[in-house]
Amino acid sequence: MSTASALIKLLQHHQPADAEERENIQQALRFLAGKPDPLNRNDFDPGHAVGSALITDPEHRHVMLVMHAKLKRWLQPGGHADVGETDLLTVACREAWEEVGCRLDATSARFCDIDVHTVPARKSEPQHLHFDFRYLFETPISATRAASDALEARWFTLDEAAKLDLDSGLRRMIAKLR
């Protein structure tokens, strides 16, 4: 099964939490229908798929967030597929290792959210979309540490996270933990 086909199947079985996520599913399905290589980070028309990890403690009382180096915002760990990667769950696990030093168990993860957001233009890249496939992982708080790819990584209680300046997609994803 192709990467695009696998992602389409994933989205077709996902129940959206709200109207915004419902629209994200429709937008991602349209995107995937025309992309033989949706993970190609050099395809900016209109963008590419990325993978991220919502990391929570087993009791769902805390969430791990990282301060994004370029955007200067708190986000969940995640990012682009490396050349040769075809599975966004694997991408989410790798990014979590790079950003918070945590080896996540992909077998216990579950797809939990789809977000489509605009990435601002930079010197080497035009403005484009990220089709962010988000996976939920549970891990003990003691299993993480800040790693080299993040300016800062830390655990927040759900109440502390609610007070941060988070985008609507991350707020929606965290609300699913309650």
Keywords summarizing the entry:
alpha+beta, 7-stranded mixed beta sheet, Nucleoside Triphosphate Pyrophosphohydrolase, 5 helices, 29% helix, 178 residues
How would you characterize this protein structure?
Helix 1 packs antiparallel against helix 2 (19-33). The chain has a single domain (48-175), classed as Nucleoside Triphosphate Pyrophosphohydrolase (Alpha-Beta Complex). The chain is of the alpha+beta class and 178 residues long. The chain has helices at 3-12, 19-33, 88-100, 158-162, 168-175, and strands at residues 47-56, 62-67, 74-75, 78-79, 110-119, 128-138, 152-157. Strands 1, 2, 3, 4, 5, 6 and 7 form a 7-stranded mixed β-sheet that branches. The longest helix is centred in the N-terminal third of the chain and has 15 residues, at 19-33. The termini are far apart. It is globular, with a radius of gyration of 15 Å.
Task: Summarize the structure in short.
Helices cover 29% and strands 26% of the residues. With 178 residues, the protein is of the alpha+beta class. It has one domain: Nucleoside Triphosphate Pyrophosphohydrolase (Alpha-Beta Complex), CATH 3.90.79.10.
